[in-house]
């Protein structure tokens, strides 16, 4: 918690000098789309990243959350009445409480402190919020992360896939994504599926087994069923794209062949995958 407050103080003090004169938000900055600011505060600094990570304070430890990240540093307008740290924290908590929020941590006193809470996101997943208040409320920092997987912008080419299949007989695809607990392929998987179609079109003799894999969340039987359904969904998409169905078989292996540590978020993410296996 101290590290976050020190950062808040440092960035806030640097911004205060300019804001005291300009009395306007820092250029290019705006409020978070879900959380407004406290009255009489200006935006000193801001950060908006499509995918990043932040260590949220959860008691004596922290928890790393990945997804869409916003960070906004606020400073009080010159001559305006300062809101107290508890007042600032509770305002944000009350805004979240009515939307299914869960308070993770509240440590606020007259000098400052921290509030951490979560709430369901509009498109699924959780929105994490941390508010660090410093200098008795003269400045505070809001950090929000909407949990979501990174969009894969760098894709394997069909030649990369062909080379991998020729060398090892398999190629792993981590960029075919599904709705949580379902076999519904997400739209952002389209580029990867098109590449597999291109691979098969370039080599008409190629036959593939499509394997679905899951992490270990849930019952093993359910994971086996889900992984098979996901493999079938990939096959259906490839057939829809013009590939002959007899060139493709499917298998669901559930959580029986992990490649990562199921005790970590990164490990579970790597275990949720589609694997293509060359068949003779």
Structure description:
The protein has 280 residues and is an alpha+beta fold. The protein has two domains: 2-147, no CATH class; 158-279, 2-Layer Sandwich (60s Ribosomal Protein L30, Chain: A), CATH 3.30.1330.60. The chain contains six helices and ten strands; from the N terminus they run H-E-E-H-E-E-E-E-H-E-H-E-H-E-H-E. It has helices at 2-22, 85-97, 158-168, 190-202, 220-240, 265-271, and strands spanning 41-58, 61-76, 102-108, 113-120, 126-134, 139-147, 170-173, 207-213, 248-252, 273-279. The strands form two sheets. It has a six-stranded antiparallel beta sheet with strand order 1-2-6-5-4-3. A four-stranded mixed beta sheet has the order 7-10-8-9. Helix 3 crosses helix 4 (190-202). It is elongated. It starts with a helix and ends with a strand. The model is unreliable at 1-17 (pLDDT under 50).
Mean pLDDT: 90
Shape, principal axes of CA atoms: elongated
Secondary structure tally: strands: 10
Order of helices and strands: HEEHEEEEHEHEHEHE
Terminal-residue CA separation: 58 Å
β-strand percent reads 25-35%
Query: What is the oligomeric state here?
Result: single chain
Q: Secondary structure elements and their pairing?
A:
Layout: H1 2-22, E1 41-58, E2 61-76, H2 85-97, E3 102-108, E4 113-120, E5 126-134, E6 139-147, H3 158-168, E7 170-173, H4 190-202, E8 207-213, H5 220-240, E9 248-252, H6 265-271, E10 273-279
Parallel strand pairs: 8-9
Antiparallel strand pairs: 1-2, 2-6, 3-4, 4-5, 5-6, 7-10, 8-10
Helix pairs in contact: 3-4
A few lines on this structure:
With 280 residues, this protein is of the alpha+beta class.
């Amino acid at each position: 918690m101290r590290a976050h407050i020190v950062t808040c103080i440092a960035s806030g003090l640097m911004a205060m000098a300019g804001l005291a004169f300009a009395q306007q938000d820092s250029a290019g900055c705006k409020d978070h789309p879900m959380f407004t600011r406290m009255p009489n505060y200006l935006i000193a600094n801001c950060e908006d990243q499509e995918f990043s990570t932040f260590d949220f304070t959860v008691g004596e430890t922290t928890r790393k959350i990945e997804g869409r990240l916003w960070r906004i540093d606020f400073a009080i307008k010159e001559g305006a009445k300062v809101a107290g740290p508890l007042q600032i924290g509770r305002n944000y908590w009350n805004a979240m409480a009515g939307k299914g929020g869960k308070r993770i941590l509240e440590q606020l006193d007259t000098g400052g402190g921290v509030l951490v809470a979560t709430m369901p996101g509009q498109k699924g997943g959780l929105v994490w919020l941390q508010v660090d208040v410093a200098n008795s409320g003269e400045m505070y920092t809001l950090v929000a992360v909407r949990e979501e997987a990174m969009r894969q912008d760098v894709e394997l080419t069909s030649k990369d896939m062909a080379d991998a299949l020729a060398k090892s007989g398999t190629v792993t695809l981590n960029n075919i994504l599904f709705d949580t607990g379902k076999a519904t392929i997400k739209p952002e998987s389209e580029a990867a599926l098109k590449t597999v179609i291109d691979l098969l079109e370039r080599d008409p003799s190629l036959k593939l087994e499509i394997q679905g894999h899951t992490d270990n969340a849930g019952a093993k039987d359910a994971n086996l069923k889900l992984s098979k359904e996901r493999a079938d969904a990939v096959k259906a998409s490839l057939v829809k794209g013009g590939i002959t169905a007899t060139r493709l078989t499917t298998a669901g292996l559930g959580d029986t062949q992990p490649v990562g540590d199921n005790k970590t978020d990164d490990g579970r993410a790597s275990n949720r995958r589609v694997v293509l296996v060359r068949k003779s």
